[in-house]
Amino acid sequence: MTDTSHAAPRRRLPVMTGILVLISLAILISLGTWQVERLYWKEGLLADIAARQAAAPVPLADIEAMAASGGDIEYRKVTAIGRYINNKERHFFATWRGQTGFYVYTPLELSDGRILFVNRGFVPYENKEPEMRMQGQLTDQQTVTGLARAKLAGKPSRLVPDNDVAKNIFYWKDLDVMAESVGLDKARVIPFFVDADSTPNPAGLPIGGVTQVDLPNDHLQYALTWYGLAAVLVVVVAISWFRKEAKPPRQ
């Protein structure tokens, strides 16, 4: 006779296994859905940044008011007028189109005596010192148009080297130290940067318009990965169940 008491359990998944499968499936699907939501958020953010960059520039005072009220000033186009203090420029280590060099951050003195640090653009490594690009050391009043960039609250990562103030090499944009290292009163310094646009400088240096929007958007790939794992789990469970169903019971 057939022992039906042992055949029945083999014909269905154990209860605990079924519960674990359902929990795992719920987690995988929720992770995939979260990545889809992140995808829509990131696409909206990138579209917003593109719109800011394409908009007409606004006066510096407008960006200052926005920053003071806690608004998001990143990548907003702005215009400022002043004179560069060329002997107080700071150098930020960077690469531009595969070439190693520096972004030149120069204080722009406004008519009211306040200071705005402007990222004038890229110079190759061999042109770090101002005497190697004297034609680009503008001395008269300048109208600068560019993108506002927020002040960093601190070092972005432990992997980033410490700034070498003595050699005037900055690896992260510490606005307070940039100002203090050249004797500028921090109270007079506007609490954000401006990246100058690509308007050519005499003799071509610095090269403006170097702002890079580094916001990777891999959320679709991640979503497909989580949904794919959920599908694989369903297939594996289904195959296992059908194999058990097809297996003849012990006599």
Automatic annotation (TrEMBL):
The chain crosses the membrane at residues 12-34, 224-242. It comes from the Bacteria. The keyword Transmembrane applies. Keywords: Cell membrane, Membrane, Transmembrane, Transmembrane helix. It is a multi-pass membrane protein. Pfam families: SURF1 (PF02104). The keyword Iron-sulfur does not apply. PANTHER family: SURFEIT LOCUS PROTEIN, SURFEIT LOCUS PROTEIN 1. This is SURF1-like protein.
